[in-house]
């Protein structure tokens, strides 16, 4: 049984009114017509996912930390990684100081900007961040763009991992032209000591994500999200089938568990933990491999004892 396996959720977000302000500070503004279309899509998503309301609460960072720590306790989660969605993620920086041994934050930079590598280094060394999150489809850059190479080089020197969201995404402003994980191949090849994580196993670009595993040993995947993308494949997959393929190609040392929990109204997505645990049981994954997937792999990338 897996009940006693120590769990680290490798993919969560903090969403509050403050973090929303930080996001709006850099996201390109939407015209009224586009904003209305974005609103309709969000409503549809909330209806389909049965999320009461995605409106972020007005709580301060310390109150949000107390709430998430209680949620993690309720689900038996030992630690969690929260990924920033905006540069200068000051709210998230304050949030993790509530429990630095359990809450880990990844920062966010625009890698093509001059000085981005120095900003990253300051966020890691002074800000206490433990990794970097990049969102190519929202930031609208190809990750193989060599203007981003100084950031990759600095991350490699600092020994921190980078999480990328490729594939489909909720945000209406996204642009799928930047969403193909194949863009990551050159980066993985040119920075072999840099640990790269493809969130949601490529969120639809499953085949492309598997190709990366074949080519480069430094590419990892996380299992987070509700798996909506599995419906859009040429042949839809079940969670169990997807995990079987990931285990076959990546192996447990390159797979890390996550839920993408983020909305206060939804709370911790315990059902995703349950579903993944059950799928691993059904696949008869040995306990040592389950330990790595459910926490050990991310702990290794974070260089924390586990
Ligand atoms: Zn996410």
Short description:
The protein has 306 residues and is an alpha/beta fold. It is built from twelve helices and eight strands. The protein has helices spanning 17-24, 32-49, 61-75, 90-96, 116-125, 136-139, 149-158, 185-190, 206-215, 239-249, 270-282, 287-302, and strands spanning 8-12, 79-83, 103-107, 131-134, 162-164, 196-198, 219-222, 255-256.
Fold and architecture overview:
The protein is an alpha/beta fold and about 300 residues long. The chain is built from twelve helices and eight strands. The chain has helices at about 15-25, 30-50, 60-75, 90-95, 115-125, 135-140, 150-160, 185-190, 205-215, 240-250, 270-280, 285-300; strands spanning about 10, 80-85, 105, 130-135, 160-165, 195-200, 220, 255. Helix 5 (about 115-125) runs parallel beside helix 7. The protein is globular and about 50 Å long. The relative contact order is 0.15. Zinc ion binds near residues 11, 13 and 83.
* Structure class: alpha/beta
Fill in the CATH topology: TIM Barrel
Shape descriptor: globular
Q: What would CATH call the homologous superfamily?
A: Metal-dependent hydrolases
Portion of residues within helices:
40-55%
Number of strands: 8
In DSSP terms (H or I, runs of 4 or more residues), the helix count works out at 12
Tally of distinct domains: 1
Rg calculated over all Cα atoms: 18 Å
CATH architecture: Alpha-Beta Barrel
Mean pLDDT: 95
CATH class (first level) name: Alpha Beta
User: Beta-strand level of the residues, as a percent range?
Assistant: 5-15%
Order of helices and strands: EHHHEHEHEHHEHEHEHEHH
The main β sheet shows up as:
8 strands, parallel
The small-molecule ligands in this entry are: zinc ion
In whole angstroms, the N-to-C terminal distance is 19 Å
Low-confidence stretches: none
Strand order of the largest sheet: 1-2-3-4-5-6-7-8
């Amino acid at each position: 049984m897996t009940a006693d396996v120590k769990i680290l959720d490798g993919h969560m977000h903090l969403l509050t009114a403050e973090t929303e302000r930080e996001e709006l500070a850099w996201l390109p503004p939407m015209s009224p017509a586009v904003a209305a279309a974005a609103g309709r899509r969000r409503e549809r998503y909330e209806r389909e996912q049965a999320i009461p309301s995605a409106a972020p609460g007005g709580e301060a960072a310390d109150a949000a930390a107390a709430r998430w720590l209680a949620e993690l306790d309720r689900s038996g989660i030992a630690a969690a990684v929260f990924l920033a969605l905006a540069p200068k993620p000051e709210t998230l920086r304050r949030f993790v100081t509530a429990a630095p041994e359990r809450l880990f934050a990844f920062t966010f930079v625009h890698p093509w900007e001059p000085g981005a590598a120095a900003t990253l280094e300051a966020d890691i060394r002074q800000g206490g961040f433990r990794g970097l999150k990049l969102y190519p489809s929202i930031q609208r850059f190809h990750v193989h763009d060599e203007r981003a190479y100084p950031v990759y080089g600095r991350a490699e020197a600092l020994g921190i991992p980078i999480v990328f969201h490729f594939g489909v995404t909720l945000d209406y402003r996204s642009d799928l032209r930047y969403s193909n994980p194949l863009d990551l191949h050159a980066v993985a090849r040119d920075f072999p000591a840099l640990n790269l994580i493809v969130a949601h196993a490529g969120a639809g670009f499953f085949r492309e994500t598997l190709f990366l595993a074949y080519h480069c040993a430094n590419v990892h995947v996380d299992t987070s999200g509700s798996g909506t993308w599995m419906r859009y494949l040429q042949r839809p997959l079940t969670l169990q089938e997807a995990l079987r393929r990931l285990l076959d190609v990546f192996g447990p040392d390159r797979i890390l568990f996550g839920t993408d929990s983020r909305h206060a109204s939804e709370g911790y997505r315990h059902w995703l933990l349950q579903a993944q645990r059950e799928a691993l049981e059904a696949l008869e994954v040995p306990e040592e491999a389950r330990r790595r997937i459910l926490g050990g792999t991310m702990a290794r990338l974070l260089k924390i004892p586990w």
